[in-house]
């Protein structure tokens, strides 16, 4: 009993107020730590700024669709501005923004648009990706469909989404791209590619967009460069597809032709040919436009670039990638008066792919600029190299 009595006696002389004060402080810190560690970064949009550039044709394709943190969205668009680019192409998925029919979730799109405009950038907004409610019910059909599957019965639903988007961002985002690479089976929901159906889609979506924003500019096509013959289960040659679009009444349904034109292993000055996929293939598409009396309409190349993966068979060396990219911009400015923007794929990915697509980017995931970013920036801003 004596040790216990001694401890109790000593406890009587302890000053408990400081002990309790520190105990309360410790509880507060322990309670607050989890909240503080997950607190989002404080982001201020700021006043709009102008892009300083010597080459307004410069544009990049951003990949902010799956970027969750606002500071990363802001940083990405700041680096587009600092590059000297005047425009971005960004994807606004219908499936993300109307997950339930008639219920729109605009939060992420608002964030991207607000930050893009604060950096003085034109936004080319790509429309696509189908929500589950607008696709066949697998319980009824017995099979799943891809996110790109859209049947004729839901073209009007897609049109209503486009109308809502156009109205919400009227005067802020006035350039809408209707779908992506419809000449590929994957992008067409693994259905047989069908130029006539795509023309109907553009007609419906374009009319809907103009109801939402009479000043909207409709970009259509966004064709993938491919040599697949007519009847292939994988897609259709972009030259054949464009000709069939015009035969189906394409002229007059859109304002600007969107094109994808990659260089692959060829330098940008390599001459075009129907059996070759290279940068100047766009000139063959332009000839088809002229053949069908559509020469007054401009083109925007919404995807282009070279890849410098060390093992991909269609890649070039890093130094070649830089030289080819700069030469491509100079060639386009000199020879293509009908081209409004040349948009590189891609600025950055939110996470690494761990394959050759990572070698299309201008920035690493941690925002470290690659040499191609710095060289393109020097050219676009008119800065001396080195």
Task: Give an overview of the whole structure.
By secondary structure, the protein is α/β, with parallel strands linked by helices. The chain has two domains: 1-39, no CATH class; 48-381, TIM Barrel (Alpha-Beta Barrel), CATH 3.20.20.80. The protein has helices spanning 2-12, 16-37, 70-83, 94-97, 107-118, 138-141, 155-168, 195-212, 238-247, 282-291, 318-335, 371-381; strands at residues 58-61, 87-93, 122-128, 175-178, 217-223, 256-262, 299-305, 339-345. The protein has an eight-stranded parallel barrel, surrounded by five helices. The longest helix has 22 residues, at 16-37. The protein is globular, with a radius of gyration of 27 Å. It starts with a helix and ends in a 5-residue tail after the last helix. Mean pLDDT is 93; it is low at 3-9.
């Amino acid at each position: 009993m004596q040790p216990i009595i001694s401890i109790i006696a000593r406890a009587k002389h302890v000053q408990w107020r400081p002990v309790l004060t520190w105990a309360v402080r410790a509880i507060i810190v322990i309670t607050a730590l989890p909240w503080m560690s997950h607190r989002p970064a404080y982001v201020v949009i700021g006043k709009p700024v102008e892009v300083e550039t010597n080459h307004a044709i410069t544009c990049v394709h951003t990949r902010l669709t799956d970027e969750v943190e606002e500071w990363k969205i802001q940083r990405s668009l700041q680096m587009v501005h600092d590059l000297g680019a005047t425009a971005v192409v960004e994807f606004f998925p219908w499936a993300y923004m109307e997950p339930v029919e008639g219920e729109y979730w605009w939060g992420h799109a608002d964030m991207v648009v607000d930050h893009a405009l604060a950096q003085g950038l034109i936004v080319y907004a790509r429309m696509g990706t189908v929500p589950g409610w607008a696709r066949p019910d697998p319980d009824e059909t017995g099979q799943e469909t891809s996110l790109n599957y859209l049947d004729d019965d839901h073209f009007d639903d897609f049109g209503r989404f486009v109308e809502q988007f156009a109205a919400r961002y009227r005067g802020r985002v006035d350039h809408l791209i209707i779908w992506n690479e419809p000449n590929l089976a994957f992008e067409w929901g693994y259905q047989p590619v069908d130029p006539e159906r795509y023309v109907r889609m553009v007609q419906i979506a374009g009319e809907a967009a103009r109801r939402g924003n009479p000043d909207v500019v409709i970009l259509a096509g966004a064709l993938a460069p491919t040599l697949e013959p007519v009847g292939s289960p994988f897609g259709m040659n972009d030259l054949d597809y464009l000709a069939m679009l015009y035969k189906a009444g394409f002229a007059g349904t859109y304002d600007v032709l969107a094109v994808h034109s990659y260089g692959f292993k060829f330098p940008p000055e390599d001459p075009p040919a129907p059996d070759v996929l290279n940068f100047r293939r766009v000139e063959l598409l332009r000839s088809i436009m002229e053949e069908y009396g559509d020469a007054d309409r401009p083109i925007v190349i919404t995807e282009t670039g070279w890849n410098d993966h060390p093992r991909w068979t269609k890649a070039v060396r890093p130094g070649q990638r830089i030289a080819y990219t700069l030469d491509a911009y100079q060639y386009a400015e000199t020879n293509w008066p009908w081209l409004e923007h040349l948009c590189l794929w891609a600025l950055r990915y939110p996470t690494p792919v761990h394959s050759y697509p990572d070698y299309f980017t201008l920035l690493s995931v941690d925002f470290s600029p690659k040499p191609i970013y710095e060289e393109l920036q020097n050219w676009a801003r008119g800065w001396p190299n080195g």
